[in-house]
Amino acid sequence: MIDYKNPKFILDSSQLEPGKVRWRSPSNIALVKYWGKYGQQLPRNPSISLTLTQAATDTTIHFSLKKSDREIDLDFYFEGQHRPDFSLRIEKFLQSLLPLYPFLKQLHLRMESSNSFPHSAGIASSASSMSALALALCSLEQRFFGTLAYEGEFMRKASYLARLGSGSASRSIYPYVSVWGEHADIPAASNEYAIPFAEDVDKIFHTYHDDILIISKAEKSVSSGAGHNLMEGNPYADSRYLQAGQRLARLTAAMRSGDLTTFGQITEAEALTLHALMMTSQPSYLLMEPNSLAAIRQVQAFREATGHPLYFTLDAGPNLHLLYPDSIATEVKNFIRTELTPLCQDGIYIADRCGKGPEELEGSVK
Ligand code: PMV
To answer: Domain residue spans in the chain?
Structure first.
């Protein structure tokens, strides 16, 4: 186990100049899903995801010397509004990091966060926000102590910290494709952080599309945190964890060889398995809507009629993610506009793509 505790990360307050760090970090969509956890946000099974572009969070941390006696002195602004209600989760998270970053107790932090997609789209993502925050914290470490100069170490620590904030956020750190969780076939994979996987797959996935159909903007009735916890009593849990590892092996082989049919079949099976696990939890629950099913049927019919490798996946919610290669983008977009947007709330869908991962934004002080 990595031990990032460091009581020496204390600032000489007479030297501290106020400054800021800024990161943009994207969301990601899991192909093999992480569902079930133990200990400190450790996954019960390995997962793999595509890193997205459009669905991203920008986070700026302005820091200065603390003047109040609050342990974590944080002012949090979301899309320009002071949000003490959102601030609580972040304060708790920062508090939990004090053994790693005791300097957080010495600072006043003004955090500004905004999403690059409409908040009203109902896809608020803890993966993008927690990964942006983790990267900003690593920038603070590098700025104050110079201990993360090596990029590989910087990203690994960012992924580790992001995981503590929200498991799936660990995967947003890397471009195109990431794997999180131990697996016999992938010696570098770890439960504590995600690893980059883009070089291990066919390049066709680097330009893959993910169009997100907003079937409903409503907030989820059961949070993913509660969903993970319900896996503890799920009678299918053990076989599910085994299955996830087997699917990951088959999926990575298909992605390596560019076999889009096997890729799509496993991806769809995973989406339905995730929702089946919700339906078989005690108490059981359902996050799909009638229009999620209607859209699934349409996607299957399109595939049948055209032979095109258009497949869907689902997150822990009703919205469909449509995955397809760039070569069929024009046809798929026409299909979405004519057949699928009528199934979306207010006709909204978000055209997203696989992307290069997080970026440090201008104005950040190294
Ligand atoms: O990171 P969390 O705790 O919000 O869990 C996310 C779980 C899924 O999005 C459903 C699957 C995944 O692997 O991203």
So the answer is: 21-57+118-358
Q: pLDDT tens for residues 141-170?
A: 999 999 999 999 999 999 999 999 999 999
Q: Are strands 42-43 and 37-38 parallel, antiparallel or unpaired?
A: antiparallel
| Residue that has been written with the tokens 């793999």 in this structure | 48
Cα dihedral 145, 147, 149, 151 sign: negative
Which atom of ligand 1 is the closest one to the Cα of 167? 1
pLDDT of residue 38: 97
pLDDT at residue 273 tops 70: yes
Residue with CA closest to ligand 1 atom 10 = 316
Share of the chain above pLDDT 90, in %: 90
As a whole number, mean pLDDT of residues 32-45 equals 97
Q: Work out the burial of residue 250: count CB atoms within 10 Å of its CB; fewer than 13 is exposed, 13-18 middle, 19 or more buried.
A: middle
Architecture of domain 21-57+118-358: 2-Layer Sandwich (3.30)
Close Cβ partners of 301 (under 8 Å, ≥ 6 residues apart): none
Ligand 1, pocket-test mutation among 27, 28, 35, most atoms within 8 A of CB: 35
Amino acid at 358: P
Q: How many C-alpha atoms does 291 have within 13 Å on its Cβ side?
A: 18
- Ligand 1 centroid–CA 8 distance in Å is 34
Burial 92-131 (b: 16+ CB within 10 A, else e): ebbeebeebbbbbbbbbbbbbbbbebeeebbbbbbbbbbb
Burial bucket for residue 299 (CB in 10 Å: 0-12, 13-18, 19+): buried
Pocket test for ligand 1, best of 89, 224, 320 (most atoms within 8 A of CB): 224
- Ligand 1 pocket by Cβ (under 6 Å): 30, 33-35, 47, 126, 166-168, 224, 228, 274, 315-316
| Ligand 1 center from residue 227 Cα (angstroms) | 9
Element (H, E) at 236: none
- Nearest alpha-carbon partner for 19 in 149, 155, 143: 143
